[in-house]
# Entry
Amino acid sequence: MTRKQKRLVLIGSALSMFGIAVGLVLYQLRGNIVFFYGPTEMTEKHVGPGVRLRIGGLVENGTLVHLAGKSVTFKVTDGKDDVAVAYTGLLPDLFREGQGVVAEGALDKSGVFQADNVLAKHDERYMPREVVDALKKQGKWAGAAGQANSQPSEQTGASY
# Structure
């Protein structure tokens, strides 16, 4: 074998090993590439206790219960299924019933999702009050369609 052939064999071997390594990594990550699971997806995948993941959906109306201290319970729904969530800590300013939420944590043995982090999602059409006021002055405000978007700019917090 010539030097050129040996070099080509070495390069080919290195590329094939790199391809196998990338394939193994992607195979292991195949179930975790999703940013979060909805309650229906979580139920369908039969997620066991102790598995860390993110769930997302809407905070179901009438389910938010403030317990002693900074503890709360609520249900996250996607309209089909719901998941009971328990969280201890400060909630984001934008957190409320009927609003989008992503919770990070794990299921316990009783089927309650024990969240250690809660992120409130706001509407992507959100506009600070100053922008709304400027649009009204210019006569370009959308009216009733945009009224839900005129949240005060002081509402900040953990959101995505």
